[in-house]
Structure formats: C-alpha cells, structure tokens
Specification:
Length: 553
C-alpha cells in the first residue's frame, strides 16, 4: 500500500552469554515500550538461554527471545525495490515494454508460489532480437497464440488462442511462385491481402497465416483454413513491422537465465553482497525473503541508502560484552546497573545507569513512572531477574530498592519468594546432561583494563555438592575456553550462596599472582577461596581491575 506507514523496528538486547537479568530485562522493556506504539520493539538475546533462565521462562509461559548474533547491516536494512516477478509465459515484447515503463533493466521470473525461476535483462532481449536467422524461435519456445495476438495487436479469426506453435518456421509469403516448395507444414506465414498468396500458404500446409495491414479475409479463405486446420490471424501492422515484431512473441522462459543465479537473502550481510557485486557486471540482483521466496531486487545504488539497525542495550554498556556489529548500529538507549565502560555512540542517547543490584529493578521503576502495571508474566520475569542478580538479597550489590521492587513484583506474579527462588536456583545448578562449555558460558563476561582483556564467569549453587560437581566439570576446561575466547586471563566464580563464599578458579599467565595482589590470598591447586565474596560486579571486578592497573603503571 503506497500510504501505509511502516513503523521502525528496534531491537532490545542484553549482553553475550546472557543471564536471567539480561533476558528478562529485554522482554520486560520491550513490553513497556510497545505500550507507546511509536515503533515495533522486539526483545532479542545474544546467546543461548541458560537453565535458570529457561526455568523462569517456562514457569511464566514466555517464549525465549529470538537469537541475534550480529547487528551488522543486512540486505533487509536497505531499500529493496519491490518489483513483482513476471510469469515465464510473458512475451519478450511485453517484458521489454514493462522494463521501459517502470525504468528497470532486469525482471525476475517467478512461479505461482513466488519461487524464483530465472531472470531476464535488457541484454538478453537485445541478443534475442539480434538473432535474425532464428526463424524457428516461436516453435522452439512453444509460443502460445495468445502471445502472438498480444504482440501483433491482432485478432484470431480461426484457431484456438490457447494453442501453441510446436513446429515450423516464420516465413514471409510474397507470391505463390516463391512460396511453392518453400513453405513447409506447420510454418507461420505472414501474407498480404492477395487472395492467391493466402490460399497458397494454406494449401502448402501452413500452421497459421498472419494477414497484415488490417486486410479483410474472404470467407472462402476462412473456410479453406478451417478445412486444413490452419489458424488465421489478422493484424493492423504492415508486413515489415509484423515480421520485426513476431519473434518477440516468444515467452521469456526461452531466453531467461536460470542456472547459477546471483541472488541474495534478506539476511545476507551488506559487506558480503558488496564483494560479490564488485566482481560482476549485473545491475540488479534478486532478493529472497526469509522463506526463500522472491521479494524484489537491489542494485549497487541501493547499498548507499542504508538504514542502520536500531538497538536498545540493557544490562550492559561495554563493547566487549555486546553483540557483534554494534558499531554499525544506532544505539538509542542504554539501561544498565554496571560500571560505565568505554562504549561510544554516534549521538546523544538516553542513558539510565542506577547503582542497584539488577537492571530489572530500574525497569520496575520505569513501569511505575509510566503508570503501567506489569501483567503477571512480566512481573514474574522482573522478579526472577532481581532474585537472580541479588542472590535473593544476599549479594552486597543488593539494595533496599531491589528488595522492595522484588516484593512488589512477587505480589503481582502471585509467587512466594523463598519457595520460588529455591526452585529457580536449583534449576540453574542442575548439571545433568550439561557440557563444560555449556556451564562455562551460562554467565560469562569479558572485561578490559588498558591493553589487558580478561573474562569472568560465575555460577551460583545452593549446596556444596552442586558447587563441587561444577568445579570438577569446568575447572579442566578453563584453559581451552581461554583459547577459544582469545583471552590471556580467565577467572571463574563458583559461588556458594548459603555459605556466602566463592571458589575462584583461573587460568593464564601470572593469574595466581594477580589474585594474590588483588585479594591477599594464596591460591592452592588452582583455586582461590574468597570468603564473603559473592558479587562479580562489586566484590571481584574492582580489585581485579585495580591489580591489573597497578601492573601497567
């Protein structure tokens, strides 16, 4: 529809290796923003959903957000020319006329289900018209008489318009003397108004005659044609014009390119498309939608009019934790409760950073400010995220605002906090069927200080047995994980919620010395026992950053 208003789409996304707060904050904020209706807001996730979060989503009947691994621009982010596909039976002349009228030099041929079958360009039509000696083109292409009638703007006086030319050549009948012995059965003969010429063509076994110049056709000719099974067409064009036009009645399928077509998906990265386009001389390229159906074409010029993806970041503000391609997207907002990193934006953004234990606490405040009461499932998501990030208010990052928000949300969700929290944490600690990589990535973030990058993961457990099992599974994997992540240092927190302590395992050059300098503890057998340390953000990261900073001075 020409006047249809297309609302922009905004992705709301948390950090890589998302935790419960990252997923639930994205879902809740998308719900709140969609109440305004100024755009289409969609929650996305930058990694797999861990078991704790999966329990939360199942409990409140919410589908996980769609995965987003890259915000780099794709074909869908440019203006695709929505040129409809044409039927393979369209005549070459009709295709050329359409190209001229809509000012395009390439048309795509599709079937009734919009599956791409081929394409035809002006160059293909020019080559077809220049092949002057291919007088059998209509029969080789199985051209329908309807195409011939349309091309010649003619009228069929005898014959079936739905029939096809299946044999013979195009022949110009000038006189009986020349035609005798030259016209073969099935030929299509262009004739003038001379009675003898028309009768001779029919008697020679012509499959059809085309009477030019709008000449009247005598009844005796029509009767003879019916007797011989010869079609009769009349056209207002003279013989010369009709002879030039008639080969263009052939269907485009006879000339279209169908093998090894250069086509792109709406999800093809712009960078990839540009590299391919630079190697060929085509002007337009077919585009397939996410279902593999034809949806339009693009040219190199379209790539200049790029609409960057729009994104709202929740629960993070550091580039190292963000989804790939963030630098090529437009950041609209950042809602977070962590330290402010080195992220740069193209322009001013709405940045809300509050020193609380959970991003969802900030979102609950925003619901209240907007006068919107979250429904049960949204309240449940927000409550779950707060319980997860604050370790049910045991973490030093927890504030009275977190606890007040969680209790208010628990009432809206109809949940008893101690009972629900125990179920949620137990679900997250379940190791059955899990790999070391799965546990490692369940809550892992990358940080940097100067030239040094390092990663810190964390898993929380309600029992000593669960914690010990996790250490046995993940500990030997840390060195391999560091290699896969390209990080010189990796630390992993195995936190006992009830004992309020963390076993910190590590890998990397001088990692043990860094821990000694940061926490004053002597690691033993690859483990540093940190009593009273349960918060990555408030208790672990600051001392690590300070120790690394001191080493660089």
């Amino acid at each position: 529809m020409p006047n249809e208003i297309v609302r922009r789409k905004v992705n709301i996304i948390g950090h890589k290796n998302p935790d419960t707060d990252s997923i639930c904050s994205a879902l809740a904020y998308a719900y709140l923003k969609n109440q305004k209706g100024d755009a289409v807001y969609e929650a996305r996730r930058a990694g797999a959903v861990n078991r704790e979060t999966a329990f939360v989503l199942r409990h409140f009947g919410v589908e996980p957000p769609r995965l987003c691994t890259d915000l780099s621009p794709q074909i869908k982010d440019i203006d695709i020319r929505r040129q409809p596909g044409i039927d393979e039976e369209m005549s070459v002349r009709a295709a050329w006329t359409l190209m001229r009228d809509v000012e395009i030099d390439t048309l795509c041929i599709t079937d009734s289900d919009n599956e791409l079958k081929g394409l035809i360009a002006v160059k293909d039509i020019a080559n077809a018209n220049m092949d002057l000696f291919d007088t059998a083109v209509l029969s080789k292409a199985g051209t329908s008489y309807r195409n011939i009638l349309s091309t010649l703007e003619g009228e069929m006086l005898k014959g079936d318009p739905d029939a096809r030319v299946t044999q013979g050549h195009i022949f110009i009948g000038t006189s009986p003397e020349i035609m005798d012995g030259a016209v073969n059965p099935g030929d299509l003969v262009l004739v003038s108004n001379r009675y003898e010429t028309q009768m001779c063509a029919i008697d020679c076994g012509a499959g059809a005659i085309v009477v030019c110049c709008g000449s009247a056709v005598p009844r005796t000719i029509l009767a003879r044609a019916e007797e011989k099974g010869c079609a009769v067409i009349t056209t207002h064009f003279d013989t010369y014009a009709a002879a030039r036009l008639i080969s263009t009645a052939a269907p485009v399928r006879h000339f279209m390119r169908s093998g090894d077509l250069l086509k792109f998906s709406v999800n093809t990265p712009i960078d990839d498309a540009q590299k391919i386009m630079a190697k060929v001389r085509h002007r337009y390229f077919p585009i397939l939608d996410e279902s593999g159906k034809y949806c339009g074409v693009v040219s190199r010029r379209n790539l200049l009019n790029l609409h960057r993806k729009q994104v709202i970041m929740v629960d993070h503000n550091e580039k190292t934790q963000a989804v790939d391609g963030l630098e090529q997207a437009d950041i609209l907002e950042i809602i977070d409760h962590h330290r402010i990193g080195s992220l740069e934006t193209r322009g001013p953004v709405y940045f809300r950073n509050v020193p609380v234990g959970c991003t969802s606490t900030i979102l609950y405040q925003m619901f209240c400010e907007a006068g919107v009461t979250p429904p049960r499932h949204i309240a449940g998501l927000l409550m779950s995220a707060i319980l997860s990030d604050t370790l049910m208010f045991r973490s030093p990052t927890s504030t009275p605002m977190d606890e007040a928000a969680a209790r208010a949300l628990a009432q809206l969700a109809g949940e008893d906090i101690p009972t629900y929290a125990e179920q949620m944490f137990e679900a997250g600690a379940d190791l059955s069927g899990r790999s070391a990589d799965d546990v490692f990535r369940s809550d892992f973030k990358v940080f940097s200080r100067g030239d040094v990058k390092f990663g810190v993961g964390q898993s929380c457990y309600m029992t000593q047995r669960s914690r010990a099992a996790a250490e046995e599974l993940v500990g030997p994997y840390l060195e391999k994980a560091a290699g896969k992540e390209g990080l010189p240092l990796v630390f992993y927190m195995f936190t006992d919620m009830l004992q309020q302590a963390t076993d910190l395992m590590f890998t990397g050059k001088d990692a043990d010395k860094i821990l000694q300098e940061a926490f004053g503890v002597e690691p033993k057998d690859g483990v540093a026992v940190l009593e009273g340390v349960v918060s990555r953000k408030k208790q672990l990261i600051p001392p690590l950053l300070a120790a690394l900073q001191a080493r660089q001075e």
